[in-house]
Amino acid sequence: MDIKIIENSISLLSSLNVLRDNENLLRKFHLISNKVKNKDFQLVVLGQFKRGKTSLINALIGVNLLPTAVIPLTSVVTILKYGDKPFARVVFLDGETKELMVLKLEDYISEDKNPKNIKQVDKMIIKYPSSYLKDGVQIIDTPGVGSVYGHNTDVAYEFVPQADAGIFVVTTDPPISASELSFLSSIKNYLGKILFVQNKNDQVGVDERKQSLEFTKRIIEEKIGVKNLRFYSLSSKLALESKINNGISKHNENQFLQFEKALTDFLNKERSQVLVKSVSSKLLSLIGEINLILQLEIKTSQTPLLILKEKIVAFEKELVTIKQQKEDADFILQGQTEKLVKEILIGDIEVLKEKELPKLLIELEEFYKNNKSLSGKELANKFDAFLEESIKRIFSRWRKEEEIKLQQSLKFILDRFSNETNKTIQKVIDLSANLFNINIEKFETETELAEEQEFKFSFDEIQVDIEIFTPVISHLPKFLSHNLLYKNIKEKTFEEFDKHCGRVRFDFHQRVVKSIGEYQNILNQTLEETISEVEIAMKKGIERKKKGQEKEITALIKLHEQEKNLIKTKEMIVI
Ligand SMILES: Nc1nc2c(ncn2[C@@H]2O[C@H](COP(=O)(O)OP(=O)(O)OP(=O)(O)O)[C@@H](O)[C@H]2O)c(=O)[nH]1
Ligand SMILES: [Mg+2]
């Protein structure tokens, strides 16, 4: 289906009075139409280290913005978004952020200045005024796979499933390698949404380029079983140079232009597919809801006042029972959630302690051996700093991992809460439809979390404050003071480790409970909205009756017109 159909149906729906006069329906409608307007689209650039991924991005946007080098460089995911002015923000693993000068990017996203991601960077967000980044497109630079830095490969692998489309970069010389093949094979299911680039073609002659490409394609076909992948052969280096110097290298420019055109077409096509997929079922569900309200308005207009009032009383009475059943179900689920979270947290904290505490003690011993020559005061200060840094490192990394794990476990609990709410919404719909003998086609009700409402745990900074030095120590001979300090710091290590275990457990538990509460509120709000939509439709029926028969007939004609338009809109989407 074409995105145009979605846009047309949205504009048809927006003209319906039944929607415009119903605040709750209107809110749901805006949620969907904003999704179409503002949908982010993530285009991820992938490939082995040094194939020129970052250079390709620079060539696309036409400036030397992201750092490139001959050694494995990009070490963290870098997200480029549209912005009127250049802007950069680094996001750390513990959720902290820092704004940067765009020129200083290298300090955080290069393997050289941030080896093994020692600065604990989660990602870099850059805004730039490039036409590629308009309409919500984000270009994402990933660390290269297959370099000596294994952690870089993990980052790239993790990113593929969540991206909307990708560009895979290989080079002319060397052609495809074993690690590139194994990467491709692991993302085989996603190949349909990936464009392929043979970069650095300026380094060899035309014949060699062809040879290299034929080899790469043949190997992919043989080893992965995918035929006829379309590759774009180009030179990012020359393309960037020619963009900066206003088009000196004409030959290369044509090749690059071809790629840019393909990319634009691909983006348009993929973007609309992603949107159509995410929006069409929501639109159908909204149309089902609008239809119910419309039918209710039509039926209430045709029902005598006395009977109408009786039906409204019956509706409210039955509603009390439905709400009570929902509360009971929520209560049980809440208890199960608390239990599950506690069990996961307690288990994981035990594992953390078993794994990390002995390691830390060995590191401490090593550290002590290397610093024995220091004075008592100096050693004490070094111990303090060592422990502080270690605790922060261990717990901030663990918190990040645990957050992902808990998010996954909680997803299934949240789904159960959603199901419960959707069942209740369905009961309300059935109740109102049955009361007025409305024959409506069944439609899916779906309450789901918007991305920004998903579980997010924002934590305070990890605070560690250690001081093991006491004035008495300075009066002791060195061997005694050092032994004492070592003993003290070991005790402190146990103490601080335990303290932080308790703290993270408490913190996570609190946040999970709070997030579930917030989530339930959102779900309950959707339920209340559906109830209120139905009530409004019924009340409108009473009001119309009070205005007299003539007005009622005109209103009915208008309602039937809207019914026709609604059917037309539905047919557009279903076909
Ligand atoms: N000759 C030539 N060199 C290129 C081209 N594209 C990139 N390079 C060079 O190749 C090297 C690697 O480029 P990068 O863009 O840093 O490669 P990368 O794939 O991002 O590397 P990692 O971030 O380490 O994975 C740099 O020295 C670039 O100047 C090209 O089209 N032609
Ligand atoms: Mg790079």
Tell me what you see in this structure.
The structure is a single chain. This protein has 575 residues and is α/β, with parallel strands linked by helices. The protein folds into 2 domains: 209 residues, 3-Layer(aba) Sandwich (Rossmann fold); 245 residues. Helix content is 65%, strand content 9%. The protein has a 9-stranded mixed sheet. It is flat, with a radius of gyration of 31 Å. The structure holds guanosine-5'-triphosphate and magnesium ion. Magnesium ion (MG) binds next to helix 4.
Runs in which pLDDT lies below 50 for 5 or more consecutive residues are: 449-454
Strand content: 5-15%
Taken from the alpha-carbon principal axes, the silhouette is flat
Query: Average pLDDT across residues?
Result: 84
Strand tally is 9
Bound molecules: guanosine-5'-triphosphate, magnesium ion
Sheet bearing the most strands, described?
9 strands, mixed
| Distinct helical segment count | 15
- Range of helix content: 55-70%
User: What is the H/E order?
Assistant: HHHEHEEEHEEHEHEHEHHHHHHH
Distance between the termini: 8 Å
Strands of the biggest beta sheet: in what spatial order? 4-3-5-2-6-1-7-8-9
* Class based on secondary structure composition and strand pairing: alpha/beta
Oligomeric composition of the shown chains: single chain
Q: How big is the Rg?
A: 31 Å
Number of domains: 2
